[in-house]
Design goal:
The protein has 91 residues and is of the alpha+beta class. The protein folds into 2 domains: 40 residues, YefM-like fold, CATH 3.40.1620; 38 residues. Helices cover 64% and strands 19% of the residues. It contains 4 helices and 3 strands. A hairpin with a 2-residue loop joins strand 2 and strand 3. The longest helix has 24 residues. It is elongated and about 55 Å long. The two termini are 38 Å apart.
C-alpha cells in the first residue's frame, strides 16, 4: 500500500533511516519539503527502476513520432490533432 507522506527537511534528516525503510518495505512515497516547498521525493529503488524503464519506453515512442513527422509543419500537426479530437468527441 503506497502512502504519500510529507516531511520537512530537518525531520527527514533526523529520520532518514526510518524513511528509507518505509519507502523500501512499505512502498511509501515521501516528499521532503523545505520552507513548505517540495524539494525531493524518497521512493523505493524498485519504483525508481520502473519509472526509468517507463521513461525509456516513452522516449522511444516520442522518437518514432518525431521521425514520422519530420518535415511536417507544426500547423499541420495542430490541425490533425484538432480533427482527431473532434472525431472522438462526435463518436
Amino acid at each position: 500500500m503506497q502512502v504519500l507522506k510529507r516531511e520537512n527537511a530537518m525531520t527527514a534528516r533526523k529520520n532518514f533511516g526510518r524513511l528509507m525503510e518505509e519507502a523500501h518495505y512499505r512502498g511509501d512515497e515521501i516528499v521532503v519539503e523545505r520552507a513548505g516547498k517540495p524539494m525531493v521525493a524518497i521512493i523505493s529503488y524498485a519504483e525508481f527502476q520502473e519509472f526509468k524503464q517507463q521513461r525509456a519506453k516513452d522516449f522511444e515512442i516520442l522518437d518514432k513520432v518525431r521521425a514520422k513527422n519530420q518535415g511536417v509543419k507544426p500547423e499541420e500537426v495542430e490541425t490533425a490533432v484538432e480533427e482527431a479530437i473532434s472525431e472522438i468527441r462526435k463518436g
